[in-house]
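Worked example 4.2. Below are the chains of a multi-component assembly; read each line carefully before continuing.
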Amino acid sequence: MRTKLLGVAALVVTLAAAGCASEGAAPAPEATQAAPQGPVKLTYWTWAPNMDKIVAVWNQEHPDIQVTVSKQAGGDDAAAKFLTAAKAGNPPDLVQAEYQHLPSFIAADAVADLTTAAAPVKADFSEGVWGQVTLGTDTVYAIPQDSGPMMLFYRKDLFDKYDIAVPKTWQEYAEAARKVHEQDPKVFLGTFSSKDPGAFTGLAQQAGAQWWAIDGESWKVNVADEPTTRVADFWGGLVKEGVIDGMPYFTPEWNKALNDGKLLTWPSAIWAPGVLSSNAPKAKGKWAAAPLPQWKAGENFSGFWGGSSVAVAAKSKHQAAAAKFATWLNTDAKAVDLLVKEAAIYPAATKGQSALTEAPDYFSTQPDFWQQAAGVAAGARGFTFGPNVGVTYNAFKDSFDKAVQARSSFSDAVRAMQEATVADMRKSGFQIAP
Amino acid sequence: MNRRVKAAPYLFLTPAIVLFTLFLALPVCYTFYLSMRRVKVSGLGLGKGSRQEIFVGLDNLAAAATDGELWAGWLRVLGYGALVLIVMLGLALLFALLLDSAHVRLARFSRIAIFLPYAVPGVAATLLWGFLYLPSLSPLRALLDVDFLGATTITFSMANVAVWGGVGFNMLVLYTTLRAIPRELYEAARIDGATETQIALRVKIPILVPAIILTTVFSVIATIQVFTEPTTLRPLTNTISSTWSPLMKVYRDAFVTGDLYSAAATSIVIAAVSLVLSFGFLRVVRGRAFGEES
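Applying the procedure described above to all two chains together yields the following structure tokens:
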């Protein structure tokens, strides 16, 4: 009996060892551009609403390139899923890539070089947006789809009630926060969310932050630069004073505060009308949009929160066809028009932006909504994202969670982000400029 | 003929061995393999050939085993686990004994009512409680002026969710064991003049010990693997970090910061701790529980 058991054990070990060996030597599928037999079939991962309707238009006009939409959940999970699929060797041909995640995709060698296919459409996009898909280099890795310039959304009716004017500078914003809270301790001008690194990134961009930059063959990492520290200390001071709340965005509690008029402003991106109309339906028609308060009176700067591009997987067998579809989707006049109407996005292509005329239903009391937006978009500045944004954003959540909870220094939290980012890059072996 | 007879057991074992190898041994083996590798980037890390997988031996494992954040996570889970184990198993035992006693009314209804929360999926249960904890939404806040999601209360709030969901299952395991006890034992005890309480303490609980040990081992393992409750509550509060429990750290490393190799190493450390704790517990109590059998 004993020997038999040993025999079985030996068999298991041998099989397991064989398994290990074969796992290590798994062959990578070749990204060959073989001549297609019949129509080329492409899969496209996206979470933009109604994308299947837009793709149907393409499929009808291009019988030789048929695209199938696979609807994804958005956000960080979608990026992790794509990276995992790319590593496993079965990614989709096309993928929606948020600007901050694109460098991770590039660093993982998961997306194809689109420089040649994208050259003719460069003029369709503003320089700031184009920099997001090139990381400031000469190589193009994706076609921009939408962008999220930030604005200040505020409760017009309650601004009148508490007798405050729309703040033109962050100084005025701080004073308004104190004034509101003094009149009613249960009401806040706004809240600082430690769950939304994207929002903080946009505010830092507005102040002129440059978290990453490529300098020759090395990365410059400066998450705790002067503009970012200034933004952090501004909000940290107000949270410590107790005049700005610390509840995270997108929670049931936040929805309730918006609905009940307990939160008067939301510095957010141009896609905010969609969120407000579903999360705070009761306040329809009471919100208005204005440019973000400025750091110096008279300036017109903004940052980006969100926005995404369409990338082609490096392992796609039909890269040329996929690139053709991606450029059509984001630059063709008809396609961009559909993106605006069906997918309700703010297009990255400049000609698409001017096509927007009718204000969103939720903001029907503000007929000049899109003119406001275009003015803001013109002054929006971004920065190059690094190859490990996941680490930086995670460090944001953890360190700002603690800082909001303890009402401790926000600039310390920013320094923790810088340290985590640099430590991770060093560990991986990235060249970092001193 | 003789050869064939010798081969027969292996033939019968084949399905089990194949399944075991494919779905347990191979993944475990692959995890070990991953834990010994790392991505090495050169220069900017952009473009082809700038990153390669290298062999690092036990470096990742050593880093995982000495990671302060992981051990802080173990401490948090220890506090949470102690609460859950004591309250959940205590309540389960109490309910099982009550339901088994001769005087209970509405036994069927109570049994189902206590068991029902176990049928609610963990995520749904946590969301449900999460809404009850949120300050401006909670009806509980009207009765109790407590911040359920505060830095110290969060452990109790999370333990409460686990207890609510787990009491029913453990109660059922104990109750089923109780029903299998021959009634004559109780009669004998009663003839000897024992009260219901004495029967419970001196007859029922000693017979229940193996079942209590079983439920404890299951609960210890479930506690070590706690993930659903803190992950689901995390978006609602500032008090739960991304590495609150050891398993959350594995998830973060693998899917948020993209380091599959560290995640594999941490998984191995967690598996080792689980093995030590559950087998250690069994070894300590074996003499007591299964004394007469071994």
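Take a moment to check your reading of the output against the notes. The longest strand of chain B covers residues 37-41. The CA atoms of residues 92 and 171 of chain B lie 4 Å apart.
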